[in-house]
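Record copied across here:
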Amino acid sequence: MAELKTTRNRKSAKKFVDGVKDAGRREDARKVMALMEEVTGAKSEMWGDSIVGFGSYRYKYASGREAEWMLTGFSPRKRNLTLYIMSGFDDYDALLGDLGKYKTGKSCLYINKIEDVDLEVLTELVEQSVRHMVETN
């Protein structure tokens, strides 16, 4: 079975964020990093080469294989700021209705720039997702 490519490593998340070329994306990443550190109480860690994660949980595949993943995290990608909301979005319709401008994938929240969303609502979304992940794993 293939090994996961995205694993926690010892690279500096701060150095990674400080190295983001686009100044606006870099500042947005700093804001999200501070928000996630506050919500989780965990220090930022690099997962792979481009994801900043906070906390972790273990999960089991249907095959019985176990792996570790972050409770929440983000990546300052060129196209958008991607936030990892590991609980998904099924239970957050009310929050999403108040969030602002965004797109979602299965567990990814895509934001063009931080000014497009309400930071209080975003904080609550991350808090609820992290709480869900801690309680169910």
